[in-house]
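Final paragraph of the annual report: two paired records, presented back to back.
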Amino acid sequence: MNSLNVVDDAIVQEITIKASAQRIFEALTNPAELLKWWASEGKFRTTEVQLDLRPGGKWMMRVEGNCGTGTSSTVRGEYLRIEPPRLLSFTWIRDEENSPETLVCWELEEDLGSTTVRVTHSGLTSEALRIRNSGWPLIQDLLQSYLEQTA
């Protein structure tokens, strides 16, 4: 079940996935896998992923919108904490004018073959920023669908 909460300057998204924390962590940190699941038919698809998976390492994702219209956007940042398979946190900066640096944290808690996956996106200091970054329910649904289909 998906639940989205807004708390102060953060969006908190939680879902339970029938997969191990290790398997989910791999899907979050393997560029080839991110290219497969970070996409929504007719809406967007990821076209490029670069990850330097270490604290202080840089990452970048390029996403093409409306699949084929030529519009694309890039999100990038720096890894802050990497604690396989339970925690992944990084800065998040959209390549858009006046886009602030925010923070994304993935927390994975495994129990009896399923894992609760919590994403907290903080530093969203305005309503416009919270609306612009409210796509986490869809992203987690895509992750869940990918993992449960490939299990």
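The closing record of the year follows.
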Amino acid sequence: MFIRFADMLLRHARAFLLIVACLTAVVVAGLHATKSQESALEALRATVLRRPASGQTVLVEMDAKSINYFKSWPWPRGIHGRVVDILHAAGARRIAFDVDFTSAAADARQDQLFARALARAQHSVILPGSLELVSAGSTEMLSSLPGARLAEGSKLANIFVQFNDGIVRQSNYGKMIEGRYAPSLAAYLADSAPLPRSGDFTIDWSIDPGTVPSVSYADVFAGRIDPTFFRNRNVVIGATASTMGDRFAVPIYKNIPGVYIHLIASETLRRGIPRPVGQLPMLGLALAIVAGACLSRRGIFRMAMFAAGGVAVLAIPLLLRWFTPIIIESTAALATVFAAMLAQCWLWTTGAVVRRITLASGSHLPNLLAMTIQPQPRGLSVAVRLRNHIETTALLGHAAQAELLRRVHERLQLATEGAFVYQIDERSFAWRTAADIERTADVIEGLYAVFAAGIPIGQGRKQTIDTTISVGLCDDESIDLEESVANAMLAADQAAEQGVRWARYVSREEEDDWRLTLLGEVDRAIENQHLWVAYQPKIDLRTGRITGAEALVRWTHPERGFIAPDRFIPIVEENGRIDRLTFYVLEQSVRDFAGLGDLKIAVNLSMRLLGRTPLVAPIKEILDRYGMKPHRLTLEITESAAVTGADGLAELEALRALGIAISIDDYGTGQSTLSYLQKLPATELKIDRSFVQLILASRSDWTVVDSTIKLAHALGLSVVAEGVESQEIMDALRSMECDEQQGYFTGRPVPIAKFLKRIATDDTGTTVERAA
């Protein structure tokens, strides 16, 4: 189950990657599960983009030196008044205190001194108002303002510090304190265009607090600072001494004095109002990158695109943060790209596992498991068995045997008309085809031609291995694929035992029933015309015109469908009933061709009839009945029929004397010698397809065919080449001066109606080059 699922994902790898990326995007973005990760990325960006403060704001530190200078705390407010006078006189633009003045001084005179200094500063001093949460997790705020006397000569700012998971990441533009709007201290110090009145913004912690210009409060008070240092600058006065306890956790810098939070927040606003755009832009980019990568079928290219996309997802927010105030979230996008990368790695790993268990050892060809997990067409299972496997393995060894299996697979793949071939075991191959048995039988005939010349293996000095095969079919669609293939392999073994090229699988019970009823079924098939004759055109290689046809018996059973001749003719012959079938085909052929001018018809003559059954008189009677000249009939006999004895030879002589042509069929596959050719009354020689189909690939086959044509012509015989499958082969035969040819390239066996349409076209004078 896992292998099927994994294979399905591998076959739809690009869709799988897109689904993983989309699901990750939806889950991560939709569940808002990225806050902590986004904070970590923001901290990383801040670390990489570390930059100095603008220098437009100066910090006056209430540091340890100052505490030691004044000896006590809180300092008298008159001291703050004097510092305000010093700073105002030095030309400071604004003077902001990050010091609590919400309660009155114990000595009222000190408040008076401070208030007078604030008045002299002409409202350039900013005092803080405080806001605090009632308790952790509460939204209720406690607020307080500076005393009324101090508030008259100053501006109010809020110094509220906002925590996110215990860390200060944001500040605000302004807050309402006791019904009065108070901009944040950062907003006052930013010197920016009009800012929003409310809302929060993310502090840019890439600005280094350590780069803010600072001096000691004690040095300012004592006049030890050059007054020009403060000219046209904002000044913030705040505590930095660790003993004063005003410290907060922030990204990167851990715990820092609270005054730096306001300073860095103001520096953030100086660069522009932060504009968060959320996660959708980067998420869209990430999905576009994944989709673009999935256009490629190559996993390594997709992975490279994912890696480049990951870099882009990290770099773009970084660049935007450096050059603009735009804040863009990228955690969901990064998770999306990373998920696609993990999915691609999973595909690679799973693919390696699937390949390992779906490839045959040694040859590394797809095996039966691979066949079962791949979609297969409905129809026939075809199995090919190597009959001399044991001998070749013993001769070659396992390494060379693996190469041989690969070469066999290559030839099978070429001959199966697009079906994919699988190696079932160390000597068997199989595939599925939607073609019917008749069409598959034609393919099998071509297979034998492909293997006839042997298979060369090895590097350099190649060794040609003679490989014999047997083929089995199983057309039972009610069983599963594995059982169907197993049955086809059994049928291939049966074909080898019976000495036929292929066999259809039948169960033992079905076989017994078939043999018991076959002869009667053949008789009924003849009577009901379920047995019919197909005609394959024979083409004159000089003119390209149709000269006649070969008659081939076909059986379309009302229940079993197409039944190949090899399936029933041997049984009919064994039971001595071939005479009726032969004369049925002969009469049908003569009747169909009698009125077709000079077109000739060739009919196969079983060797079992020669010398045993009267032939001359019945054949003459058929010719006379339909008025066909004897010279238009050709009787084809195999080479083995040529050795049937004196009676058979005499009968052939009598047929020839009648004017009937005699053809030696499948020449080259039997045991005939020159002496047989000399004594047979033959008029024609048919060269077997196993030689013809390999004349372009095999020099020896070219030589055999060429010399056979020359020999036949020297003996006064015409030559017909069987199995012509291409224009190149036909051209080669023409160059050898072969007389005629037949094959699928120029015409398949067809019923008489289709044959008549074909010759009607041919009669127009059109040269035949390809089958219609």
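Residues 511 and 517 are 10 Å apart (CA to CA). This concludes the annual technical report; the extension proposal builds directly on these records.
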